[in-house]
Design brief:
The longest helix is centred in the C-terminal third of the chain and has 15 residues. Helix 13 packs antiparallel against helix 14. The chain has 354 residues and is of the alpha/beta class. The strands form two sheets. A seven-stranded parallel β-sheet has the order 3-2-4-1-5-6-7, sandwiched between helices. It is globular.
């Protein structure tokens, strides 16, 4: 009986809004016949990222795509490995003869090291190997000294680790995402000057082992051959990678607290595009919303508008036709701290009804 080779797994990590989902979509659109399963670790109840990835041209029917994109909506893989991650991996291991690769997109608040260490478990190690950990960096944010895209939230994100108030936990989480990397992508390189990009490269390099490659990209557009087939075997050497949060997973306590973040799902009727974007921008400024993502129904438009916002910067495009039996409604997820769901929805509805 032929022994199956280990199934390669690529883990994509990085902060909220760094471009992880865009990178994965690019990889799936250029899969060149590879059979790829995707695990998406959402922070929030509405599976926006998973639905985006299901629209990719991966050479299969919608039913098959739904069977290849697995959405874990319980916060963060680093904290829910046993409850959320292992059941999905067992299913994929059982199907590994039908797969060529697995892609895992972590949430923007995830620590990659515990996830990589999960591949040391015998049941997974015998069947899978971590081909590479890819850390996606928001280059403009790092150039601005904020690491994440919305600078007004840096102080609020210190609450992620109250034991480290002398140094921003946001920087520590950024360093930990880099410390586990086998490849670093300086994303949105086209949005900053060559001088700033050079400074970002130097700053990132300070957190990396010498062998880790750093490459630049715009919207994650890179040849697939650069992103997979690295053969890093990350699970073999991850224990030697230093992490600020190593001690948080040594015992029963878990100080990597994501409860400080709220994820709010809002459903709205059809809305004028410019009025909706203006209302969202005002909401971001007024309430310190970190991230906005979702789909909008625009009157008299046959296609659905995909919206992704980081701070006051919004990207949008029409991604697909509305289905014949599909309700044309606007569904959004807002991520931030101390968010009042009823107040946010009321203010959005008021702004759209003017």
């Amino acid at each position: 009986m032929k022994t199956l080779a280990k199934l390669p797994v690529t883990i994509v990590t990085g902060f909220l809004g760094s471009g992880k989902t865009t990178l994965l979509r690019h990889m799936l659109d250029n899969a060149q016949g590879r059979r790829i399963a995707v695990i998406v670790n959402e922070f929030g109840e509405l599976g926006i990222d998973g639905e985006i990835l299901k629209q990719c041209s991966i050479g299969c029917t919608e039913e098959e795509a739904n069977g290849r994109v697995y959405e874990l909506a319980n916060g963060c893989l680093c904290c829910t490995v046993q409850e959320e991650f292992f059941p999905v991996m067992r299913e994929l291991v059982a199907r590994r003869g039908d797969l060529d690769h697995i892609l895992i997109e972590t949430s923007g608040l995830a620590l990659p090291k515990p996830l990589v260490q999960a591949f040391q478990w015998p049941e997974i190690r015998s069947a899978c190997t971590v081909d590479a950990v890819i850390t996606v960096v928001d280059s403009p944010a790092v150039a601005a000294g904020t690491f994440a895209a919305f600078p007004d939230q840096v102080d609020a994100q210190r609450k992620l680790d109250p034991n480290l108030d002398h140094e921003s936990p946001l920087h520590e989480l950024f360093a930990d995402q880099l410390a586990s990397a086998d490849l670093v992508i300086l994303n949105k390189a086209d949005l900053i000057s060559p001088e700033d990009l050079a400074r970002v490269r130097l700053e990132v390099a300070e957190e990396l082992p010498p062998a880790v490659k750093v490459i630049e990209a715009s919207s994650g557009r890179l040849p697939l051959e650069v992103l997979i087939g690295l053969g890093a075997g990350s699970e073999e050497h991850i224990d030697s990678r230093h992490s600020h949060h190593d001690h948080h997973h040594d015992g029963d306590e878990d100080d990597h607290d994501h409860d400080a973040f709220d994820s709010i799902s809002i459903e709205l009727p059809q809305a004028d595009e410019s009025r909706l974007l203006d209302a969202l921008a005002q909401l971001v400024v007024r309430h310190g919303v970190l991230r906005v993502k979702g789909f909008a129904a625009i009157p008299n438009k046959p296609m659905r508008l995909l919206i992704q916002g980081v701070g006051t910067r919004f990207d949008k495009h029409f991604d697909r036709q509305w289905g014949a039996d599909e309700a044309r409604v606007t569904r959004l997820v807002l991520i931030g701290q101390a968010l009042d769901a009823d107040l946010l929805e009321a203010q959005l509805r008021a702004a759209l009804s003017v």
